[in-house]
Amino acid sequence: MKKQIHLNGFIQNSPSPHSTGLWKHEKDQGTKHNQLSYWTKTAQILERGKFDALFIADVLGTYSVYENSHNAAVQRAVQLPAHDPLLPISAMAAVTQHLGFAATISATYAQPYALARQLSTLDHLTEGRIAWNVVTSYLESEAVNLGFSGRLPRDLRYDRADEFLEVVYKLWEHSWQDDAMMHDKDNDTFADPEKVHAIKHKGEFFSVPGPHLVEPSPQRTPVLFQAGASPKGRNFAAKHAEAVFTKNNSLDALKAYALDLRERTKNQGRNPDDVRIFPMILPIIGSTEEEAYAKYENLTNHVSYEGTLSILSGHTGVDFSKYEPDEYIDDLESEAVQGNIDLYAKDPNKKWTLREAVKNHGLGNGTVKFIGTPEQIADHIEQWSIEGGADGFNIAQTYSPGTFREFVDHVVPELQKRGIYRKEYEGATLRENMFGKGNVHLPENHPAKKLNILRNK
Ligand SMILES: Cc1cc2nc3c(=O)[nH]c(=O)nc-3n(C[C@H](O)[C@H](O)[C@H](O)COP(=O)(O)O)c2cc1C
Questions:
Q1: Which side of the chain, N or C, has fewer Cβ within a 10 Å radius?
Q2: How do the domains of the chain map onto residue ranges?
């Protein structure tokens, strides 16, 4: 059987979140993100295309690095308004049967006890279709609104996230035994207290006695995605993630990333392929190559230059209002998202000026664009899968949800024709659809399985 690819739709609860300024495009519906029908329609499109999940990015603050102000973000709709990523999920689950939902939640600002409860609740309501994209956040504006005097240094954010995961693993995997639920009416016993355990977690960042507030959900631990590209972030992914979300602007960059991540995963005592790699791609589809490139030019004309400066400044932590348009982007260490600096400063193929970076970053937040006919896009997908080591793809959008609809109508049938993409869902839960039927829970070699709370008794 040929290597199978997996697909997620990439979105955020904001107007045109990943293509700055595209809310102005006549085909864009993203300004309706405050209505349930926008979400239910989008979910149904993706399920028609047999996607694994809708992958929902999130930030908890404004983009205010640029000119030290949120004004450009407000004016140009730079991931603002920023609505909650979890709240539309139940409605989408009610109109779909198989599609998963991968929500981005920051381990820097959430509390493990409360988040474990929210995600378990959703895993119940969706019957096992929840994933969590674990991030550590990058905006100063998040930190100062969430009880910190400023953004924590990267290393500390990851150390906190590491302990955060230990706490939620204890709650999800070890607090309630499988047979704790009795529903024994004759003996007035709803659940067996002998089988529901306190976790008694005491660590550097968290003190959580437990027990977990929710009985075991279908997957127990939601499918764990991670997005973060610094060396510390990659080690974190190698230890915890079942899949990573990555942004690369060339096949060579993806190859280097995949080799590095697989080596780090092996060093954590896991199999190199235990972490599935999902690069983000932006498809621009035409019935001919010329039509696709004309469409690309048209879409580019809707991009907001200042809005993109604002998002790029937030992504990198560098205030680009201080740069000349033809200045080169320097190779800097960033406390924001290192991968976004590396995208431009470490490109082996060229040096990027700010003007060029803005042009690139305006559509799909700088990720690679696959422009062409459905066949050409399928060719790129196959090449990135076979040569680059991608296991799946997060499909970004220009206009929403039209980009998803075009992809499902034109590229999905081509992938199916080539025998590299499912025609039917394989399992009932998201983890089964991603990893094969029967894989409902985390594998035994995952660190979550190795914790033992009974030792704390
Ligand atoms: C492809 C990609 C997507 C990301 N998406 C988000 C996101 O939606 N929300 C967020 O707060 N952080 C996001 N992050 C950044 C993470 O917060 C990351 O944990 C943080 O930037 C620091 O790590 P890094 O320098 O290791 O990337 C993303 C990072 C990457 C590489």
A1: N
A2: 6-295+368-456
| Contact yes or no for 386/380 (Cβ under 8 A) | no
State residue 338's pLDDT score: 82
Look up residue 105 and give its amino acid: I
Q: What number does the ligand 1 atom closest to the CA of 230 have?
A: 26
Residue 455: per-residue pLDDT: 59
Pocket lining for ligand 1, CB < 6 angstroms: 57-59, 104, 106, 135-138, 154, 227-230, 233, 245-247, 337-339
Instruction: State how far the Cα of 181 lies from the Cα of 183, in Å rounded to an integer.
Output: 6
The set of residues, in sequence order, having a beta carbon less than 8 Å from that of 277 and lying 6+ positions away, is 243, 244, 246, 254, 257, 258, 261, 389, 390, 391, 392
In the predicted model, residues of the chain with pLDDT beneath 50 are none
pLDDT at 349: 84
429: CA distance to ligand 1 center in Å?
26
Q: How far apart, in whole angstroms, are the C-alpha atoms of residue 261 and residue 267?
A: 10
Q: What is the pTM of this model?
A: 0.97
Between the CA of 321 and the centroid of ligand 1 the distance, in Å, is 23
For position 456, what pLDDT does the model report?
54
Closest CA to 313 of 145, 57, 63, 69: 63
Q: How far apart are CA 70 and CA 59, in angstroms?
A: 14
Hey, what are 46's tokens? Answer: 């993706």
Q: What is the pLDDT of residue 197?
A: 97
Q: Which of 88, 34, 39, 80 lies closest to 59 in space, CA to CA?
A: 80
Task: Quickly count: other Cβ atoms within 10 Å of residue 235's Cβ.
Answer: 18
Q: Which atom of ligand 1 is nearest to the CA of 154?
A: 22
**What fold does the segment set 6-295+368-456 form as a domain?**
TIM Barrel (3.20.20)
